[in-house]
Amino acid sequence: MAAKKKNWLLYGANGYTGELIARKAVERGQKPILAGRSEAKIRPLAEELNLPFRIFSLENPEEVRNQIADCFLVLHCAGPFIETAVPMANACIESGTHYLDITGEIPVYEKLNSLSSKALAKKVMLLPGVGFDIVPTDCLAVMLKEKLPKAHFLELGFSGFTDISRGTLKSALAQLPYGSKVRRNGKIETIPQLSLKKIVEISGSYAEFFAIPWGDVFTAFISTGIPNITVYSSLPASQAKILRLLQPTTVFLKSSLILKGMQKLVELAVSGPDGEKRKQGSVLLWGEAWTEASSKKVSIRMRCAEGYEFTIESALAAVAKVEKGKFQAGFTTPGKVFGSKFVLEIPGTKILS
């Protein structure tokens, strides 16, 4: 049983976000087991931080199970998650180890949700999205549902997320040719990228937001039961124009050869925001919910820390809660298992209105 185990394992500890989480964990006196495929990358970090480490890939299911069998939890930070999440989650289920990750990809959530009954039978929790994807928006959705239990429509949005890591960009490239996603009458639908927009006022200024295929299109339905969901992100006019011009070419990213080539360029050219940008940055979020007849409407505005800074804090907060016995077996969401106020426990989070 996961509850009787003492260790937790951070897989993908050498990645941009994984390393940041590892360093913060050590600052707080935690001793996760660092793990990944490359000893050349994992060993130096583990030795610097004086942490135990393990080297294994996800190709051999039996080896993965053996490597995590003594852990109550795996925090999975190794992308691309569309390739790595299910092998790790299956190993977690078989070994009685809770699974957490930091992805925000709808296809990954769908795959993990399909494992829910297996996880439930083993009393294992599958909790993806314990970072900026999707803790603040998921908790915001649950807050809105609590304020308006009969809500039929939900819109969420955020602005201020700027620099991204190579892992995030590589995942985004893989999703780009498949359009944006919305949920209508309980079903996820595909719409063209940048085809749905709205102007939103936050803190006295107005910004243009575009619908994006954010994870909440899938998970907020599980968290709230609201059947119509759209998630928006702000985009400067210049970037929106460039994306529109590039739109006809994104179909070529369906070719695995071209996609891998582009992702290789990302590996060479992208690093992610530095410490100063993470500390100084912040993200503004908004959410609105209303009834079918539009007779009642509720809204919330919120500010949180810069996306990666938030992810470091929220991922470790989630680990701490599970370590204390807080979990729900099967596939679940941060807002469901930890409650809507979980986001307010993360440093830098504040309700604005």
Automatic annotation (TrEMBL):
Mention any Pfam family matching this sequence.
Sacchrp_dh_NADP
Q: What InterPro entries does this protein's entry cite? A: NAD(P)-bd_dom_sf, Sacchrp_dh_NADP-bd
State the protein's name.
Saccharopine dehydrogenase
Which organism does this sequence originate in? Leptospira kmetyi
